[in-house]
Amino acid sequence: MTKSGFVIANLFRKRTRTILTLLSVIMAFLLFGLLQSVNTIFNSGGDFVGATRLFVQARVSFTSPLPISMLPKLEAIPGVGRVAYQQWFGGVWQENTPLIMFATDPLRYHDVYPEWVMPDAQWQAFEHTRTGMIAGKQIADQYGWKVGQKIPINSNIYPQKNGSKAWAFDLVGIFDGKDEEWKKRTNLAFIQQDYFDEANQFGIKGRTNFYILKLSDPARAEAVSKTVDAMFENSADETKTQTEKDFNISFVKQIGDIGLIVRWILFAVFFTLLLVVGNTMAQSVRERIPELAVLKTLGFSDRSVLGFVLAEAFALVLFGGLVGLLLASIAGAMVEKGTGGQFQLSLDGSVWLLGVLAIVLMSLAVGLLPALRARRLRIVDALAGR
Amino acid sequence: MNQAAMNQAAVGQAGVSKPAVSVEANAMSEPMVQVRNVTKVYERGKQKIEVLHGLTLEIPRGDFVALMGPSGSGKTTLLNLIGGLDQPTSGEITVGGRRIDRMTSGQLAQWRAHNVGFVFQFYNLMPVLSAEGNVELPLLLTKLSAAQRRKNVGVALEIVGLSDRAKHKPKELSGGQEQRVAIARALVSDPQLLVCDEPTGDLDRKTADEILGLLQVLNREHGKTIVMVTHDPKAAEFARRTLHLEKGQLLEQAA
Fold first, then answer.
1. Could you state, in order of their start, the residue ranges of all structural domains in chain B?
2. By C-alpha distance, which of B242, B225, B245 is closest to B34?
3. Cβ of B141 and A12 within 8 Å?
4. CB distance A9–B124 less than 8 Å?
5. What residue spans define the domains of chain A?
6. What is the pLDDT of residues A271-295, one digit of tens each?
7. CA A217 to CA A232: how far, in whole Å?
8. What fold characterizes domain B2-10+60-86+105-245?
9. Which residues of A touch B137 (CB under 8 A)?
10. pTM, full prediction
11. Residue A377: its chain B contacts at CB < 8 A?
């Protein structure tokens, strides 16, 4: 027998209680892992994008499209190199799998986003095929799309002129990312703006959700941003210009302050966990006051007894926490795979690090009071049941 | 007692030592326990209760002393003080040549681990551990290797006649067997002093006699000094002498 063996034996003295407590720890850390991943996604905003592009959207909301006629004015601003635009299509694959899909001008998009890697022939095919579509490698692999196929896609917003929301596009290219960061984001697809303009039933012709300005001089980002917004101030289409990173952050935060929501949910989860595990530990120590007194009688010091109780709390939270994080990692990877990378919930190193920190803090929080009680125990009183 | 022969065979195999000389010959040549003018006052709220009043006592090495007296006479308090579980309000206590009345709680814990074995009325075994796990517990405080610990545990269990119950948990043992495990636990680190608080108080007569016989063997053949608190005059008969306490004072000394 070893001291750790003794700790584990004590932990399982009430097997059912320990298993139930472990399950609550596992569940809490599973939630922690997944929610923290969500939080990371929503707060990262894409540090990978650099500061070479600005996004211009309607000041009210990017759901109010801006006129394409702005294009030459934007291109004329000093410091702006090339301008592309994107219109949300609202694509749905098969019955209910949403796709990240935009209508765009192929050549402009290619110029503004050199990070997407695709053979020139496929870029040209995209430019010259009105019903053409290009898809990221991730999404193409996931749905088994091959270049040359006709891909039937519904739009949950835009019907065609015949009233049908069922569209069909010719897949003319599959693009990949230039590096690992960009490869992870090849979960989107593009169609031709001209075709979309011509074929959709709604009267949004000649408009687009947002412009992307590729700067010739990134140092002028702030000046360009101010110039753009000033240029359209008091017009029917006032603009809001921000860096690509800020745009990404504000895009995902439209549904609320995710970080705050996540923090409150985690606070509730861990507070409940604190009560559950804390109560288990306190009860466990209360039940064996005489045994702890015997340990001291045998010569275990006050500090050793404190260590035993803390070790029990740590073992319980560590085991449950690691299993919970592992399950979150598996579940996150499955969600990521299942959605073609649209929800990148795989746990990264920072979530594991935070998880381990939470395990240590939680162990201390639930174990310290019972451990101090065990440490302060007077042998004679405890043996006499006082 | 057949057990004695088996016990003797086990002695000397490992940590539990055989006395260098016969206890009878060596008997009482030097004091194992010296209690001088000890007073113990407990505070219960605002009330102060003086349990021992200037008690003086000497127990020679190799002695087997039964402490008797009515409830509240201070027997267990005296036993706790001798075993280093509590400290006197005043007075001196020397055990095995060391003053223990001034030791800090940490020093006392260390001292207890190496010098005293405890046997309680209700056995106080760890329910989550097997018999051998319980006996091994005090050895976790030593630097012995796992193999050496197992060996010592085996010898201690053999001495108490429970080798075949080594893997059993306390709830799978009878009261007498549990008390034997407790005695093995008290013996395993080879202390010279055993303090026993009503060791047979929870046992039937026959089992009690077996346990007391075992204590007698430990005293006579292994040289352990034993101080035993008991209410039972028949139990006291197994001791070399009986001390009577009343109202915190030693009354008499009976051979």
1. 2-10+60-86+105-245
2. B225
3. no
4. no
5. 3-44+257-383, 60-237
6. 888 898 898 889 888 888 999 999 9
7. 22
8. Rossmann fold (3.40.50)
9. 1, 6, 295, 298
10. 0.69
11. none
